[in-house]
Amino acid sequence: MNASHSYLQLFYAVYSKDLTLAFRQRAEIVNPLLFFLIVITLFPLAIGPEPALLARMAPGIIWVAALLSTMLGLDKVFRDDFNDGSLEQLIASAYPLPLTVLAKVLAHWTITGLPMVLMVPVFALLMNLDTQLLTATLLTLLIGTPLLSFIGAIGAALTVGLQKGGILMSLLVLPLYIPVLIFATSAIDTSSMSLAYGGQLAILGAMLAVAAVMAPLAISSALKVSVS
Amino acid sequence: MWKWLHPYAKAERAYQLCNTLLPYFTVFTVVSLVVGWVWGLAYAPADYQQKDSYRIIFIHVPSAILSMGAYSSMAIAAIVALVWQLRNAELAVVAIAPVGAAMTVIALVTGAAWGKPMWGAWWVWDARLTSELILLFLYLGVLSLYHAFEDKKSAGRAACILSIVGVINLPIIHFSVEWWNTLHQGATITKFDTSAIDPSMLWPLFVNIAAFAGFVGVVTLIRLKNEILQREKHRPWVRNLVSRG
């Protein structure tokens, strides 16, 4: 890589490389979505099919399912690059590592988070959600899923050098997901009472802003530890 | 300050410092633990409403305070380790983590034992209980991450990064669950002069908090000594130490 490229070009190169790779192995995009759908299917079977009960629990179920399927894709963010050695090259290159990391995390969100958000209206039909709740669920997922990608990527970066990092990563990351879950479901609850839920959305947005700035730094130093 | 601290970056000096501090900490802990427990469990007056079962605060409150105190010390050690690249500070992180986890478990178990007669349930999904449980998960995360690495050098640094990430998240977790649901009573001893607890109960509580802090110090020092010896086992000074007996 020639050092005369601009940072924007670097960002675009890393981002489009990850997207291209994902689109060539479509299972990577489809599998988390299928998992998402199956988890959501399991809940009515487990707790009973009454529409009122389902509508009450649907936002929480959708959120927990989203959380779990984000975890599924996380291990892949750095694993392939680590195995073929390109991660070392990215670390050794003259470009700032946090920028590369930012591109990779956003690519992960585009592959797993965004399709989930787009699929939610379909699942809402399954779960008997009305339009008001659906809007709230969509908005919280739209702000919340990139946040999940940022936080989760820290865990992925810490465990990428380990042989069996997958389960360990979920142990590290899930406790850190709790605030996101709480604020998101609280926003949805508030909207179900027809109250304004801009406050919770603003807090989620603030957490996303902080994570977008801080997480790439943490991820880069974690990657340096894992690769060394 | 750097000039004064710098010699302790050397493992041997840090080991000697542990040895010097350990007797003071041990004496302090034993004395204050005996005084605090006897005073709190036997002599402090019984509560007018909860009778004698309130006495669990002499164990529950100190361990809960120390579970958070140990996490902050761990995070400070982690920052020191990453910023100044001091390996001894990494070892300190590893030394503190299980002690803090044990304190968290004690706080949770004693809390459950008190909650059963008082609230009528071993566990309720209340803000403080939940954040204490999450604190335990964070401790266990740091520990299992450390033990997952073969190479102990990267293990130490990875544990440091995770504890810093955790300490940034801890206030967010705390306030989010606080807002989510609260049953636990508010803080009683934060406002010292207008405290909501009677002095006859407050003083033994303070003695116990100091005793638990000393106890965490003792165990951490012993663990730190072990970690230093294990990490440095090929160095001549450790061999001399062992051959001297």
UniProtKB/TrEMBL annotation, chain A:
What does the record say about its membrane topology?
Multi-pass membrane protein
Compartment(s) of residence: Cell inner membrane
Q: Which residues cross the membrane?
A: 29-47, 54-74, 106-126, 138-161, 167-188, 195-219
* UniProt entry keywords in alphabetical sequence: Cell inner membrane, Cell membrane, Cytochrome c-type biogenesis, Membrane, Transmembrane, Transmembrane helix, Transport
Whether Hydrolase counts among this entry's keywords is: no
Q: Which Pfam families does the entry link to?
A: CcmB
Role played: Required for the export of heme to the periplasm for the biogenesis of c-type cytochromes.
**Entry's family note:** Belongs to the CcmB/CycW/HelB family.
The name of this protein is Heme exporter protein B
This chain is encoded by the gene named: ccmB
UniProtKB/TrEMBL annotation, chain B:
Matching entries from InterPro entries are given as: Cyt_c_assembly, Cyt_c_biogenesis_CcmC, Cyt_c_biogenesis_CcsA/CcmC
Domain of life of the source: Bacteria
For this protein, the record's Pfam families field holds: Cytochrom_C_asm
Q: What is its main location?
A: membrane
Compartments (UniProt record): Cell inner membrane; Membrane
Identify the keywords attached in UniProt to this record, alphabetized: Cell inner membrane, Cell membrane, Cytochrome c-type biogenesis, Membrane, Transmembrane, Transmembrane helix, Transport
**Membrane topology of this protein:** Multi-pass membrane protein
Identify the stretch annotated as signal peptide in this record. Answer: none
TM ranges: 21-44, 56-84, 91-113, 133-149, 161-181, 201-224
Q: Which residues form the Cytochrome c assembly protein domain?
A: 8-184
The entry's family comment says: Belongs to the CcmC/CycZ/HelC family.
The task this protein performs is described as:
Required for the export of heme to the periplasm for the biogenesis of c-type cytochromes.
Q: Which PANTHER family match?
A: CYTOCHROME B_B6 PROTEIN-RELATED (PTHR30071:SF1), HEME EXPORTER PROTEIN C (PTHR30071)
- Put simply, this protein is called Heme exporter protein C
UniProt source species: Pseudoalteromonas aurantia
